Amino acid sequence: MSIASTPTYYGYENCNSYKRRRKGTCDQNDCFLSEALKIPRALFLGPATVAPMVSRAFPEALVLPLPLLKIVMNREKIDLLKTSIDNFDTLLQSPAAVRQISDQLRLLRSEGVLSDFEPYSTKAGRRTGIPVLQLNHPAIVLRSQAIQPDALLSKIVAGSMMGDYDHCLISSFYRGDIGPILREDVCRAEPDYGDHIVVYVRDSMLSAVKTALKKRTSRELRIFPHKKFDFIESLASCSGVVATSGHQLSSEALHLGKPIFSIPMEGQFEQRLNAMMIERSGRGIQAGMGSIEDDLNRYFNRLEGKMEASRNPAPEGYCFHDESDRAASLAQGL
Length: 334
Known about the structure:
Layout: E1 2-5, E2 10-13, H1 23-36, E3 43-46, H2 51-57, E4 62-65, E5 73-74, E6 77-78, H3 80-92, H4 94-107, E7 112-115, H5 119-128, E8 132-136, H6 149-162, E9 167-170, H7 184-188, E10 196-200, H8 203-216, E11 220-223, H9 231-237, E12 240-244, H10 247-255, E13 260-263, H11 269-281, E14 284-286, H12 292-301, H13 303-309, H14 324-333
Parallel strand pairs: 2-3, 3-4, 7-8, 8-9, 10-11, 10-12, 12-13, 13-14
Antiparallel strand pairs: 1-2, 1-7, 5-6
Helix pairs in contact: 4-5, 8-12
């Protein structure tokens, strides 16, 4: 996502990772724009996959195309070779895309760009001579001292995706400049502890996760997306969460005090870092598909204790509450 501020418009450029992101993340960013930043009108630049959601949230908004960088998965792991091949033509056309976006920014007399982890608007902003602010979570990997191959690759990708910028604010439930940016519905939810487990994993993982869960617990499993149950209501009232280690869902679960069984996607260092920090916080465990049954035993043996710990304030160095207003204040100031 990126915002190019103008006298009458804000340009909102949806980052390419929205292709796999939950709809809730898009809702969260829409809320941040319309409520926290008080934006009356918006120019959105984004891939066609998000155009319908943008139009529903901002009926008067103009939606213009933004190149979509694809991520090709092979079961639970990123296929680097196929990802490179699928994106070759898009990357080859990047200079022309940057020039086109630069022209749009000049046409609308844009005053600045606020970008969420995509390189096109930032390069266009610098080309146009206007200030660029990065506001995202994935850049948290750049603050890690890890030197494993997946960590080094993640840092290279993060640097490339962020492009050129003047300022950077990292939103994170750990080690961030600001805490997480949460949806209003999540912030309004009243947490309770029912007898169901919320499950949100990739399709390729679901069968193995369900089988292992049913061996270990008799609790109801609410697997999302779900036709019957509301996600936020189920999240607020569950006894625990079994999910991949994406930052948004992890932040929502932590905010609502839910112990997390966090499964990082193989080869995705950012998710491994998220899961590791969840375990260090005492609010969940870092798990793996190769050891899922042992990890579930560890999780359920400690579930009651982690539910109790989740009622306490966040440990030092962590932030589990919404910081949308602070993010907006800092963004407007910069």
